[in-house]
Amino acid sequence: MNDVLAYANGHDDWEAGFGFAARLAARLDGCLTGLNIFPSPAVPGGFYGATETFAAILESVRKAETAAYAAGAGFIAWAGRHGVRAAAWQVAEGNESNVLQRLGNRHDLLVMARDAHAADEHVRLGQILLHSGLPLVLLPPAWTRPPRFDCIALAWNGSAEALRAIHAARPLLRRARRIVVLRGELRDAYAEIGWLPPFDLVDYLACHGLEAELQGIAESGDAAGPALLEAAHLQRADLLVMGGYGRSRFSEWILGGATRHLLGHASLPLFLRH
């Protein structure tokens, strides 16, 4: 995880928008890119004066973008004071999922916070998670605590998404004092067309020098989300690693109930990977 991408709206308070990401990049001895995204101005129509209205909207957006660009030097200096080895500042215009997908091609991890006031926030986050191509560290709203890895919890149900998330989180797992596997109902390897090879997560972690404890989760389906959060808090976890489970392969933005619940209610940082 040498290249961390941090996304936040605004550039008035570096600590509030990017503090966690800066400290994480410093701990990983990685580079940090801060990002602001502005939506493309929409062209109004159907009423008198629409052209003038659009011109005013466009001018306002361009002024905001110019101010965001000018803030770059301040961001880079601020990140350096937090021990970040190298920092950069990006301003983009367009659909945020498309922008993050493009930047994901040269970054290893995305860090951002959940917006507590946005309508259908789980849909927006699901689109980012499924299309950015990056592991995502999702912070609760207004999260101000620094990164801690005294205990990292792993949500495990035997799925490919869960394994990809755990595999991607290994640089953070190596810094954990405790690793707890929250094991739910495992998927049956013989229920698929053809037999899937057997896999033992604890053995896999041990091969990478990581010792893990096991904790069973009785709930399944949509009830698994609240059960995972409760178990993570009982273990005093600083981070919960889980896969982003899509309910439908044909409508990927519709996430499964457990993922949807965690995206909306998690009160600790999540590490997510689809």
UniProtKB/TrEMBL annotation:
InterPro entries: UspA. CDD domains: USP-like. Residues 222-270 form the UspA domain. It comes from the Bacteria. This is Universal stress protein. It comes from Tahibacter harae. The lineage of its organism: Bacteria, Pseudomonadati, Pseudomonadota, Gammaproteobacteria, Lysobacterales.
